[in-house]
């Protein structure tokens, strides 16, 4: 499986991609990961590419080859959607991070990023991850909410990914419990939505 995790600096994109890759390795699969960070420290574009399989020999994913996109920000999902194959799945946080260049009127923010992606033939699961995280008490938990929402679309047990996420907070029981609630809330937010057929076909 080829997948992209995208967002802006400070959202934990690279941490999320690393958790997926490590969970895949722990589940007996091979995995590779690479990043495009740009001006990540200043809230710029961040993209992590992850490849999972029985044996992974190359790290780069070319446009049109990815089966899954996990976008922590709506417009960033649209920006990277050309990397997805026809009919691939995108799990997108509906949260909008409007940059100064838009606020100043130089550019316009896309009116409906998820809708544009659906119009391009993609299977889009849009959730309010930031809103869910804020209801749990901390907007930073949106990272774990998104991983929970994407878990069913990955070719590995959801519990393996959940355990990998919580492992990163081993010294803080409070943080681990908060992220566990966030991951579970992300999974619950996708209930009733058909899980991606990509993961099951990959496993078979």
Explain what this protein looks like in three dimensions.
The protein has 204 residues and is an alpha/beta fold. It is 40% helix and 22% strand. Strands 2-3-1-4-5-6 form a six-stranded mixed beta sheet, sandwiched between helices. Strand 2 (30-36) and strand 3 (45-53) form a beta hairpin. Helix 1 packs across helix 7, helix 5 crosses helix 6 (142-150) and helix 6 crosses helix 8 (173-189). The protein is globular and about 45 Å long. The two termini are 12 Å apart. Residues 200-204 have low confidence and may be disordered.
Summarize it.
By secondary structure, this protein is an alpha/beta fold.
Q: Count of DSSP helices?
A: 9
Strand order of the largest sheet: 2-3-1-4-5-6
- Distance between the amino and carboxyl termini: 12 Å
Segments where pLDDT lies below 50 for 5+ residues? 200-204
- Percent range of helical residues: 25-40%
Strand content: 15-25%
List the secondary-structure elements in sequence, H or E. EHEEEHEHHEHHHHH
Q: What structural class is derived from the secondary structure elements? A: alpha/beta
Please tally the β strands and state the result. 6
Mean pLDDT: 88
Roughly how many Å is the radius of gyration?
A: 16 Å
Rough shape? globular
Sheet with the most strands, sense and barrel status: 6 strands, mixed
